[in-house]
Write a structure and sequence with these properties.
Elements lengths: L37 H21 L17 H4 L2 E14 L3 E14 L5 H10 L5 E5 L1 H5 L3 E2 L5 H21 L4 E5 L7 H15 L6 E6 L6 H7 L9 H9 L5 E5 L17 E5 L11 H11 L8 E4 L9 H23 L6
Parallel strand pairs: 2-4, 3-5, 5-6, 6-7, 7-8, 8-9
Antiparallel strand pairs: 1-2
Keywords: Metal-binding, Zinc
InterPro entries: Met_Synth_C/arc, Met_Synthase_cat, UROD/MetE-like_sf
GO molecular function, one term: zinc ion binding
């Protein structure tokens, strides 16, 4: 087990994307096409990565990432590098059982000929000595972002993706990544599949890894389809209740969830007692900038159910739809709010 983050109390991180600069892609737009091509695109991505890294460091973020500057979409950018998927042959499918989207089609056996993000991870590793977290799509969320015309089985395709993800994850670990996060928003929707084979395929994806592993389960980006869906969920959002018991028994090290400005009952964290928890203390579905005290209050509530040495403050989800000034200010609030609670803990007897 990688212990690099154990030296940091309440290590802060981001759950997902940061906004891309306007010279790389259209600002405040999810999955915007690249404005550059070929070698210039690679250079542009790495320049954006450096800008993202600097903004994280200035905000006091402890566990840094590429800010997803090197990918257009958190799922399909990985898939487009695989064999067996035709991006020209598209179908409209229901995504997360919430909204319709045009997606590529699985037309044959899926496989990975070479690494997808390893060169980018190596570049980030060269820029900093801080702990690095890298995000990959989870198997269930991958199958929910495609039309399968080959396997004709969500479970079979998920197992195939789990094997491919494991290959990528092992190379990312070798490149110096400290935490590999698998994004599984589908875990908040398909409860029966999560418990029948979803967690099992996720564990296949982390098989043999020595670095820390995380699963990020959120309620989605701050787009209309997701915010409209949230309005239907009532006064208590108890979706985590379905997956947490199975995840608590799993080999996943860290569970990342949405908290601030949500209706997730904080006592659901009892279901993952003993796990490290990334608590979303920044709402990415609003331009309203949290104060450090807002962040601190969310962390204080979480500390009722999570030991201090297992709590990781982070954002609820990705910030891609936000403007850069708003995202920057929210990051700064996250760092400052974590500092407030760190000082409180150091002056108390609550440290484990």
């Amino acid at each position: 087990m990688n212990t690099v983050t154990k030296k940091i109390l309440l290590p802060t991180s981001t759950a997902g994307s940061l906004p891309k600069p306007s010279w790389l892609a259209e600002p405040e737009t999810l999955w915007s096409p690249w404005k550059l091509q070929d070698k210039t695109l690679t250079e542009g991505k790495h320049d954006a990565l450096c800008v993202s890294l600097q903004e994280q460091q200035q905000a006091g973020i402890d566990i840094v990432s590429d800010g997803e500057q090197t990918r257009q979409h958190f799922v399909t950018t990985f898939i487009e590098h695989l064999n067996g998927v035709d991006f020209e042959k598209r179908q409209t499918v229901r995504i997360r059982d919430r909204y319709d989207a045009s997606v590529p089609t699985v037309v044959g056996p899926v496989s990975r000929q070479k690494s997808v993000f390893v060169d980018d991870a190596k570049f980030l590793r060269q820029q900093t000595k801080q702990p690095i977290k890298w995000a990959l799509p989870g198997p269930m969320t991958m199958i929910d972002t495609l039309y399968d015309d080959h396997y004709k089985s969500r479970e079979k395709l998920a197992w195939e993706f789990a094997k491919i993800l494991n290959q990528e994850a092992k190379e990312l670990e070798a490149a110096g990544v400290d935490i590999i996060q698998f994004d599984e928003p589908a875990f908040n929707v398909f409860f029966d599949e999560v418990n029948e084979w979803g967690v099992a395929t996720l564990e296949r994806a982390i098989e043999g890894l020595k670095c820390e592993t995380a699963v990020h389960i959120c309620y989605g980006y701050g787009i209309k389809a997701n915010t409209d869906w949230k309005k239907t969920l009532g006064s208590e959002w108890r979706q985590y209740e379905e997956a947490f018991p199975k995840l608590q028994k799993s080999n996943i090290d860290i569970i990342s969830l949405e908290c601030h400005n949500s209706h997730v009952p904080m006592d659901l964290l009892e279901l993952i007692r003993g796990k490290k928890v990334m608590v979303g203390a920044i709402d990415v579905a609003t331009d309203t900038i949290e104060t450090p005290e807002d962040v601190a209050n969310t962390l204080r509530k979480a500390l009722q159910f999570v030991d201090a040495d297992k709590l990781y403050p982070c954002t609820n989800c990705g910030m891609a739809p936000l403007s850069r000034p708003v995202a920057r200010a929210k990051l700064q609030a996250l760092g400052a709010g974590a500092d407030i609670v760190r000082r409180e803990l150091l002056n108390s007897d609550k440290l484990v």
